[in-house]
Amino acid sequence: MLEVVGIASAGLAAASPPGAVTFWVIFANWIGGEGWLQQHRRLPAAADRDAGSMHLVVTSVWAGVGIGLVSSFLLPGLSTGGRSEPLFTVGLELMAAGLALRRWAVAALGSAFTVTVGVQAHQELVARGPYRWVRHPSYTGTLLTLVGVGLVCSNWMALAALLLPFGAYGYRIQVEEGALSARFGDAFRSYCQRTTRLMPRGL
Fold first, then answer.
1. Helix (H, G, I), strand (E, B) or coil at 72
2. Mind listing the pLDDT tens digit for each residue in 55-69?
3. How far from each other are the two terminal CA atoms of the chain, in whole angstroms?
4. Lowest-pLDDT choice from 43-47, 66-70, 138-142
5. Which CATH number fits domain 17-38+50-116+123-194: 3.40.50.1820, 1.20.120.1630, 3.40.50.150, 2.30.30.60?
């Protein structure tokens, strides 16, 4: 068990080699996928109605992740305490589930998925795949992944840092739904009445 100034570390800082490898494999897969989307799925400036939300989301996500990882190794005094192995395992499961949901949502939207907010010519209002139940499943996937990272770090600072991306996605959703409402009108408002933003009804 790794110790810093006499305080036992937990979470990622004290993970077994297989656990640490599993974390970094999932993490690298997530980062690689997001990097590809950033490079290939941006709208042209003329169609962009992003209102700065993409930059806010990206900055807050990586600030939250960075704070979490650094805290896990350098601030063991803020460990969540107790047995960290169950939290670590649940964290890995949430990361994997969040990544899978994010990929499913991107696939369901197809070419309509972009990292910047806007509506393309001839774009349809998608209600298939996870969009049958929630309006922003790709955001749900990312937030699940981030919660997983926080649990893997097993550190109160890491969990508190999640407030940054949660707040940024709240703003992003407002911007995106405004653009969709302006484009699809009553069809989008009707869709909103039968769906929820992030979690299916009953959960």
1. helix
2. 999 999 999 999 999
3. 37
4. 43-47
5. 1.20.120.1630
